[in-house]
Specification:
With about 70 residues, the chain is mainly α. Helix content is about 30%, strand content about 0%.
Length: about 70
């Protein structure tokens, strides 16, 4: 079964909702679309083939770039 929230394709956890929507319901927050892990769909890191997360870099390369800038 899939989550009863509109446009959510995650599997049901409890009360007909996925884990994320169920937790929002338990906290009495209005149901909202759950953000995807990778909001920049279709883009890949310019240094490897992993999905891009920030500044056209994957998470590992972005963190390495940030550490290099701190020094």
């Amino acid at each position: 079964m899939m989550c009863k929230e509109e446009n959510c394709t995650k599997p049901v956890n409890s009360r007909g909702m996925c884990v994320a929507h169920y937790q929002k319901w338990r906290r009495s927050q209005p149901a909202q679309p759950i953000r995807s892990y990778n909001p920049v769909k279709g883009l890949t890191c310019k240094l490897c083939e992993k999905p891009a997360q920030a500044r056209m870099l994957c998470g590992a390369h972005y963190r390495a770039d940030q550490r290099a800038k701190e020094k």
